[in-house]
Amino acid sequence: MSTEALRLAVDNAQPAEPTEEVNGGFKIIHRGKDVGIYREVERPGEDGKVSKAWVRFGSHLEVLAETRDGSGEAWGRLLAICDRDGTKHRWSMPMEILAGDSTELRRGLLRRGFVPVPGRAAREALEAYVMSWPSLRRVRCVERLGWHGQVFVLPDVTFGPAADETVAQLPGGPPTFTVKGSLDAWKQEVARLAIGNDRLVFGISAAFAGPLLHPAGEDSGGFNLKGGSSTGKTTVLRCAATIWGFPMHSWRATGNGVEAVAAAANDTALIMDELGQVDGRDADAIGYLLGNGTGKARARRDGTARPAASWRLIFLSSGEIGLADKIAETGRRARAGQLVRMVDIPADAGAGMGAFQDLHGHGAPAAFADALRLAAEAHTGHAGRAFLTELTKEDPATLAEIIRKAGAAWIAEHVPIACDGQVRRVAGRFALVAAAGELAIGLGILPWPKGEAAKAAARCFKDWLTDRGGTDAHEITAGLAQVRAFIEAHGSSRFEPAWETEEAKAKAAAEGGNPSRVVERTIVNRVGFRKLEGETWVYFVLPEAWRSEVCRGCDAAMIAREMRERGWLRPGDGKNLPVQVRVPGVGKIRALQIEAAFLAGDTA
Fold first, then answer.
1. What is the pTM of this model?
2. Which CATH code fits 183-468?
3. Residue pair 191/446 in contact by the 8 Å Cβ criterion
4. What is the distance, to the nearest Å, from the Cα of residue 163 to the centroid of all Cα atoms in its chain?
């Protein structure tokens, strides 16, 4: 059609007839230039007669349904507002906000683009309209996003069977789940470039794992990419954040702030950048808080208990240091429970390009990171919704079985059989990430070859194990490291070389010298003795020093038993861990005898 023909067609087009709904003195006009809500008023005429007229008191606003929670309380109204751009917004409004002067009602409507008519009469009409417009439709309102039975609720849309019967009614307003660009462009410009890059693949797969926690019966947990500045850690997080469009947050927050953000991301993924920015004392608490999935119990102003915030999610983090190092800044020691809930993965993938291994034709890691950043800003929020569309088509029992089988197969292939329960627990989370990525591949959401997500999860798990120091319990690994570090630091200064001194005296006597003139070294704060056997030293630690200093903060007996089983501690007689030894100038004592192989890290 030519430009002139198009102009004539527009000029000759007839305006669409407005559609109206009238009820109880109110009217809604849906189309045409008079779109909006009207009230019927009486106006006296000059002749004294009263006439009725329709007066507009606001832009387009509909009452779609009445809402209530699962127990039949917390009643409200589901409203639809059309803003000046023609975009429709849904708001599940609690009726309790009308108990005052309706300021909260107007604030909520204005934020969503409603345009009211000024004046007291218009304000009163608006309140009366919202309260009295009838609706036979009933929907359930929920105060938390995520799974509710077989449906999954996001702020603006619900997925699953009977999705129209459940809506979100969130205290404090809905969180932002941005949707921009397109799914196809995201696949091409973000997801495709992750292929061959284990950290990128793992981060994206982890973001898909959030909705699988509930059907899999798993707890919350997370991963922290640990490494130096400008290694690509933040780029990995940006790409992971595109799955849901939920904004990336900073670790520079208190525990209370983290609670609110975690609750808003329930059943999805929480992305937090720069662990180094959080205070070490808060990091100590947050390590448990995010993994436990429950906030602090608090009281309302009237003294009654306020429901604690709760969540179930996968969280991804980055930082130049790990959680244990951050906590250590305060003089505290990270506990095993914290390091199980949040595990540190080295950000460097080992290819000399930081977190990247394949630049897909980009000349340098910086250029590759810039391309991903721009694409992540342009295309976000589609992949998670496409994932939920397919997940909610499955029967919950079938979905749980799919996840269980995929996770079991991954664990059987990549997890050592003889590993500690802590390692196996963390391995289960890696397996869930692998299952999520492979499921998204199978559904056609991720344009990756089959096995890409499982391979990336295996590589990251292996790197975590290496960085952790093996498959033993954290308490054992940390305890052995502490004992080794103590001997390395104080082997010469706090262990008395009694045998060496005795030999020097004997040598002096044999050569006709004066043994008493042999200088005996003074040991300050002695913790034991050392003896040269061949070319290596054997250390004898006094039992009290072993408990109070060498193994301070650890289970000293457990560490000693572990060292004995590995051949690093010479066993005493019977069930005794210490051996009986005669020390020159001291006499018989009992001490824990540490073999020279311990410092070399070799097993006997």
1. 0.76
2. 3.40.50
3. yes
4. 27
